[in-house]
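fwd from M.: "can u put these together and see what the complex looks like"

so here's what she sent:
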Amino acid sequence: MSDPHIEELLDFLRFKSVSTDPARADEVKSCADWLCRKFLSLGLTAEIHPTARHPVVTARNEHRPGRRTVLIYGHYDVQPEDPVEEWTRPPFEPEIVDGRIYARGATDNKGQIFAHIVGVEQTLAEAGELPVNLTFLIEGEEEIGSPNLAPFLEEHRDLLTCDVIAVSDTGMVAPGVPTMTYGTRGVAGMEVTVDGPSSDLHSGIFGGAVANPIAALSRLLTSLHDGDGRVAVEGFYDEVAPLRDWEREEWAALPLTEADWLRNTGAPALFGEAGYSTVERVWARPTLEFNGIGGGFQGVGTKTVLPRRAFAKITCRLVPDQKADAVLDLVERHLRQQCPAGVTMTIERGHAGAAYLMDPREGFGIAAQQSLEKTFGRKAVLTREGGTLPILESFREILGVDTLLLGLALPDCHAHAPDENFPVENVLAGIRLNRALLAEFAAD
Amino acid sequence: MSDPHIEELLDFLRFKSVSTDPARADEVKSCADWLCRKFLSLGLTAEIHPTARHPVVTARNEHRPGRRTVLIYGHYDVQPEDPVEEWTRPPFEPEIVDGRIYARGATDNKGQIFAHIVGVEQTLAEAGELPVNLTFLIEGEEEIGSPNLAPFLEEHRDLLTCDVIAVSDTGMVAPGVPTMTYGTRGVAGMEVTVDGPSSDLHSGIFGGAVANPIAALSRLLTSLHDGDGRVAVEGFYDEVAPLRDWEREEWAALPLTEADWLRNTGAPALFGEAGYSTVERVWARPTLEFNGIGGGFQGVGTKTVLPRRAFAKITCRLVPDQKADAVLDLVERHLRQQCPAGVTMTIERGHAGAAYLMDPREGFGIAAQQSLEKTFGRKAVLTREGGTLPILESFREILGVDTLLLGLALPDCHAHAPDENFPVENVLAGIRLNRALLAEFAAD
């Protein structure tokens, strides 16, 4: 990748395109504008499509009959940078250190989608045209669950008609090991708020008279798991599809050890549901995770209050064949049954996305594995992914096609976390992968 | 109270003398300066005494042999104003609405100590002298547990020698009902931090691999109580002195109903240890209360992280004969035994203060009850107080005297909470009480 392309990627990373924060809607819009201009500069047709919240950017070459049509999907929005004080460098002032680009969005997803764009740019510069009909679809709401993408797909079926979709927004099991992901977990979220007194109370004058919302919330959260990390909500596992033997065998052979998990998390120990390896727990078992908790005084020193309120943010990761609404119904019923005396509880449901599973051992899956082998010079491994790409189910339902997940993120790229980064060499691999993939699909 | 005195009290309330916040040390100092100038303007000798943190202000008339010596104690520091967004008015811009002064510190303790100062000012203006030897002792560290007061008492025994101490920093059971408090609860605090991964993790990519610090912390906190609100720490109640029959009878007759507790807390229900009335739970039973909790993402919307850390702030209210260090030892031992797998736990101990109990049915206690009766025109009731005045034990140990607690705060004055306030009529009662008290002690 030449210097101008590096500089361009750093420009892309400077946009604070945090989709969850209403105060940053203008930054999101500016980032979409930048992306559209980039596509136009390649000679592609490009458009910005407003939605109810953040715009979608599309781009395409001239589509000709008799060729395969490929859609490349990505997103230009990013996660919030909190806790910002734990970043080594400012999250929106990208810097390259030891061959890695540090910035919010470097790996998820700006660095990866940008590699595809540069791949196309290079092919066009060298060959004058692409070997396939190509459509880019880059949205600005992936990190908030893509609420407006399904309606957009419905509305623009013609524009988006394709034979297959390729996405680089998942991970590689290890540096240099080409990885094809054939399934993802879903997600379903809610926020639980526990209210007690009508204002914060003096814990001396009133302590002992009424229930403490933090104590009540803790009791509620604790009731959601047993002591071994298994979710204790009745019916939670009823719809979970069991792992197949070939998957357990393939995964057991991966270059991904318990020591890797320890190093990549920095946790003092691994922990979770008995009877499953760590990789099985993360890729093929559901979770109920607490993403945040707050209540009362959190400043320096002591403040002897009995707080009026406490809240927790919860998301479940779902696996086939769990349904988001059904799981949230179970969790909500559990919480209402368990709500302690002396407080009131409010539940607000958040975003949801379905799990996804395809068969990697046929059709475009085989072509994708060949492209990966060409790019990296070794056979691709087959994995699932613990994260969620809720749009995969929409692609299948609305556009009627499968999606190939050919991600380039490494376990220590810190997606969603402080010091997010992406190796420059993975940008280069992404460019090669794009070129191999389009060639393979054209020839297939 | 004449307008100039009201204006003076509002000036006193404008100082942001928050003792726990290092950034506000200058405001605390300015407030001490203001107080010292006020005493000097009355014709008293006054001094500002620096300590390791916030200064002590003392003032006295000329002490003559053969008279009773009375020490009046108070504090000019205040609690933090968090959560500031829940205040109807800015906490340090005092305003009088419907006969109540709204400001942080209005009731705790600036309004109450200021009434004593005005009482002395009036007596001096009318009589030219006071009927007793008087010493004012006003500190700036009460809200952080008075860490430097005991050393100050040791160092200034001569200056502070007295026969009895009077303090107005407690509550009245109802408007117009004179109240003498003969016991307070102690306090002992700690902060518990649970650490998991070395940084916030993507809850999809890593969820299921490692323990969630919020889940671990919730489990720890939940283990500290049984489902009925009784503290589940082994040995926690071992040293608790049982309530005496006359206390239970006196308290049962107080004009303080369950409906009052509900109204004053705004909670949906009362809740606590079985076998005790609400007033008994608050005045004579210990608690273990959660003052604050935090961890992970607390902003608007969703952030799908598995957080690296969660913490909780805990304070116990103690009763005779519990000892703070011993109780903290028990709680810490419990937490260490209960700490779940997959995380590490850190405990930092906070401030501590002893519980206090005197016999109100003899000596100065009787004189104080007579002053209260004269001030309010009805017999005083005998109560204890759920809050903590850790210096009472120091007064007894170092100065060798009892302390009379003649507080004027009402249950809806919101001490330590948003919209703290103090009725103007209680300022007037405080002035009358000061004059009656000094006269009664002189005559006794």
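replying to her w this: The first helix of chain A runs from residue 3 to 14.
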